[in-house]
Amino acid sequence: MLKDITVSFAPHIGKPYSTRSIMLDVIIGLTPAMIAAGIFFRLHAIALVAACVISSMATEGICNLIRKKANTLDDLSAVITGIILAFSLPPAIPLWAAVIGSVFSIAIGKMVFGGLGANIFNPAMAGRAFLTASFGMMMTTWTVPATIDSAMPQISAANAVDARTQATPLAHSKNAQKAQYGAMELNSSTSDLFLGNVGGCLGETSALALLIGGIYLLIRKTISFHIPAAVFLSAFIFSAIAYLINSDYYASPLYHLSSGGLFIGAFFIATDPVTAPLTRRGMWLYGIGIGTITMLIRIVGAYPEGVMYSVLFMNSLAPLIDKLFKRIPAGGEPNA
Amino acid sequence: MSVTSKKSLTFPGGIHPPEKKSLTINSKIHTGFMPKEVAVLLSQHIGAVCEPLIRKGSLVQAGQKIGDCDAYVSAPIHSPVTGKVKEIALRSHAVIGRIPAVIIETLPAHPVKKGCVQFDEEFDINKYSVEKICEAVREAGIVGMGGAGFPTRVKIEPNPRLPKTTMIVNGCECEPYITCDYQIMLEWTKQILIGVKLAKKASGCSKAFIGIEDNKPQAIEMMETVLNSLGTDEIEIIPVKTKYPQGGERQLIRSILKKNVPTGGIPPMIGVLVLNVATCAAIAEAVVADVPLTHRVVTVTGEAIAEPGNYYVPIGTSIETLLEVCGGVTQKSARVIMGGPMMGIAIADLTTPTTKTTGAVTVITKEQMGMAKFERRETACIHCGRCLAVCPENLNPTRIAHAVKNNLMDVAKSYYITACIECGCCSYVCPAHIEITGYIKTGKIFLARQKKKIP
Asked: What is the per-residue DSSP string for A246-259?
């Protein structure tokens, strides 16, 4: 009975979970938004998610082969990158473009740095930035959800040209600003925004579905509340200030919170542990940075949407933030 | 009752591993066990190793001093049994490796020590002077029985440079599985409290707090009742929150006094003395009944043990013998640990004898360890920050571990590697199953080698 005893460092027990189970939790958290995307954008949504996930996993597998490293596909992080990238793409984007984005996300965004844990930028956001830079037109053509126009044929890459397109709610608010017409009519449509019955990227249209997934992650303690809270609070405060200065000109804070990528950004992208700071105080600063820069881009900048760039920008600052908030031992600095 | 109305105190950080105390929680202390042979190690404490006072072939009486040393930081060693010295040979010590031990063959038909000495007489603290208490504690060879094994005389003796004002008695027992201190608190309450009073008087502390985790309400109640009957005398029972590592002395001080021991410092620097409950009972035995420390309660536990329980055993009993007494091991086991699963040391040599600091022997199986831990399946750090959240010393464990892994000792030092108390919380919560505590321990050894402290 005691033949095969081994020795190692204490502790000899561990919490029964793993990187894989944490990633699985995130996938479960993304499921409501996936269902919502299926409802709003029908078959093409499912095709897009599948294309991104499969090409992400294939890229990671090939990279591991080239690097002669052990297979890391079972940690499921490539699946999440694929889903998040698909969610941040316009529904009508051709599948081949999505595949290029996924390959870039994994190969350049993650594997060249050394794989999971070593990447500086959120891989999905890196891939999306690449697509925005390369295929600007495709990335800003928004089809309306099937639920708005039931007469509309199923959206797919083949008939994307025929599908009805419209500006996203945020582009609306941007145009409203430029044309200086009232933002009043926008503010009445917040509930549609919250439910997701609007044009926009695949996964970011339904704030409600993302909120359900986010709450699941919070309850499971897969993510801590610090980053989402910081993002929402800072975004709210920043947009509220703008709204109070001129409510005819700027959209209301609630409109901003429930639109675009803020929910997916706060719950699923900014909380990517690899590219976020380690310390609690660092997380607050990181979240505040994301919320503020997003609003800065939306309200002052040239783009209608700013989550991607603000996340990438704060990613690059995360190591510095950790240096800034270095933890001091509970007993104080040791006397050398 | 006043016990439940008090709010449990606690410290930031820490974890909640499965307690697993139910295996032995109702086990009374089994006494009367006598092994055929004991191997009493000549170093059972922090400090100088003792010189043997007897030769091969000599006859020794139970309680006879068999090893001593002139150094101040040291403690004498006594024979727990009456018998014949078979030899003085090397035996394994869980921490410091192979060291000399006195191996004694017990002679049958000699009375066996049956548990802690019972005090029937009325206890009068005025009968014992400070000098007398310190001397008796030194002569009885008492060391900290919670695990570190620091000679207790050195701790309690008044020191003009570091005057002590507050005493904390550690009855937390935060390690999973272990229940020996709990049983002592239930069965030998009076001895513990008399020991507390003696130590409090000797050290010159004006106030004493007894910290007990709130998952042991019976122990808290028992201690309260006996304390009231003996006279409270500025001693207070403090329920503390059940959380690992509540029983770490720095954590317990933080919970009860809301003070921090300086990094790299010791409790007397802030005027605090911390003693374990078992040590207090030993102090009472030594001072009142003049009985040296030769036995202790050991929890032998784990799902694989046939009859897990608390056993009162002579110091020097081998792990092998202990496991036999408990009916043997019934399942295929993965690890035999001296101590609990969080901080205990896995041993490979089953002839390793118990020491004054061995509170438990835990045998765990593959299932209890978890497959990832068992196979040491380490994956990449995903910077989730869980280790930072649980670190009771507010460190950045992952950074230290990776600095050590890449042999960047300066970086490890800049993240305060020396402040680590090696509690193991970070390794416990790591989803990537990185042996963070292991790397930190290794790093500390590297540093000590740089300073040429050890080979």
From this structure: -TTTS--HHHHHTS
Q: What is the pLDDT of residues B236-257, one digit of tens each?
A: 999 999 999 999 999 999 999 9
Q: What domains sit in chain B, N to C, each tagged with a CATH number?
A: 2-8+17-26+115-289 (3.40.50.11540), 374-450 (1.10.1060.10)
Name the residue among B333, B395, B429 with its Cβ closest to that of A327.
B395
Taking contacts as CB-CB distances below 8 angstroms, the residues of chain A near B392 are 330
| Together in a domain, A211 and A306 | yes
Residue A177: what pLDDT? 54
**What is the token pair recorded at A156?**
């797919």
Are A295 and A173 found together in one domain?
Answer: yes
Digitized pLDDT (tens) for each residue of chain A, 336 residues in all: 677 788 888 899 999 889 999 999 999 999 999 998 888 887 888 899 999 999 999 999 999 999 998 888 888 999 999 999 999 888 888 999 999 999 999 999 999 999 998 999 999 999 999 999 998 878 877 666 655 544 443 444 333 334 445 556 666 565 555 544 444 455 555 666 666 666 677 777 678 889 999 999 999 999 999 999 999 999 999 989 988 887 777 778 888 887 768 889 999 999 999 999 999 999 999 999 999 999 998 888 777 778 899 999 999 999 999 999 999 999 888 875
- Pair (A188, A289) in one structural domain: yes
Helix B277-289 crosses helix B189-203 at what angle (to 10 degrees)?
Answer: 80
- Split into its structural domains, chain A has a count of 2
pLDDT surpasses 90 at B328: no
ipTM for the complex?
Answer: 0.85
Q: Does A75 touch chain B (CB under 8 A)?
A: yes
Confirm whether A328 is domain-assigned: no
Chain A residues within an 8 Å CB radius of B15: 15
Min CA distance, A281 vs chain B (Å)? 11
Regarding whether A132 and A30 lie in a shared domain, the answer is yes
Is A153 inside a domain boundary?
no
Best A15, A225, A275 member to test B by mutation, with max B CBs in 10 Å, is: A15
B346/A7 Cβ within 8 A: yes
Q: Which of B352, B364, B427 is nearest to B41 (CA)?
A: B352
Chain B residues within an 8 Å CB radius of A6: 334-335, 346, 348
Residue B378 to chain A, least CA–CA distance (Å): 10
Q: Which helix (H) or strand (E) holds B252?
A: helix B249-257
Range of the domain at A90: 19-139
- Using a CB-CB cut-off of 8 Å, the residues of chain A touching B429 are 14-15
Find the residue in A nearest to B270 (Cα). Answer: A331
Residues A123, A185 within the same domain:
no
Contact B330 A1 (CB under 8 A): yes
B263 with A12: Cβ contact below 8 A:
no
As a three-state string, the secondary structure of B141-181 is CCECCCCCCCEHHHHHCCCCCCCCCEEEEEECCCCCCCCHH
Q: Looking at the partner chain, which of A1, A6, A12 has a beta carbon nearest the beta carbon of B341?
A: A12
Residue A1 within a domain: no
- Rounded Cα distance, A295 and A250, in Å: 11
Contacts of B427 in chain A (CB under 8 A): 9-11, 14
Q: Is the minimum CB–CB distance between B270 and chain A shorter than 8 Å?
A: no
User: CB-based contact (8 Å) between A336 and chain B?
Assistant: no
Put the strands of the sheet holding B77-78 in their side by side order.
B51-52, B65-68, B77-78
Strands of B97-106's sheet, edge to edge? B37-41, B97-106, B83-93, B59-60
Distance CA A202, CA A38 (A): 9
Contact B435 A279 (CB under 8 A): no
Q: Is residue A188 part of a domain?
A: yes
- Judge: A9–B438 Cβ closer than 8 Å, yes or no: yes
